[in-house]
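Objective 1b. Sequence-to-structure analysis of DNA-binding transcriptional regulator, MerR family.
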Amino acid sequence: MLIGELADKANISVDTIRYYEREGLIKPVSVRDSGYREFDESSADTLLFVVRAKDLGFSLKEICTLLRLKNDPDTTCGEVKALAEKKITDVILKIKSLQAIEKDLTALLRACTDTAASVDECPIVDSLDKKEKEI
């Protein structure tokens, strides 16, 4: 199948497939004399694996590792589990960071009581303008 068919099958853009190809995540099985790259069902399976891993928040570097592990017959499930455990830890830390941002923004919004005031008197701008973090 050509790249357009592959893109349709995976429901992603041709440009995304080209990017994944440049990053070494997917390879064509052959290249025609015309330069058109051909992919097979294995390519489609790999691409869908990449898309699902990306949807779970894995970075391209992590996906490369997952693909390497997947294709190594000596890999154990425990090795893959360790990578997923690290990812969930990263996700939990990111959630905590986002919750802290939400708290800070909420405090700034509460401080902004006079919406008709000049921007020079805006507590949000004042907070952002400070040299040190006060929140």
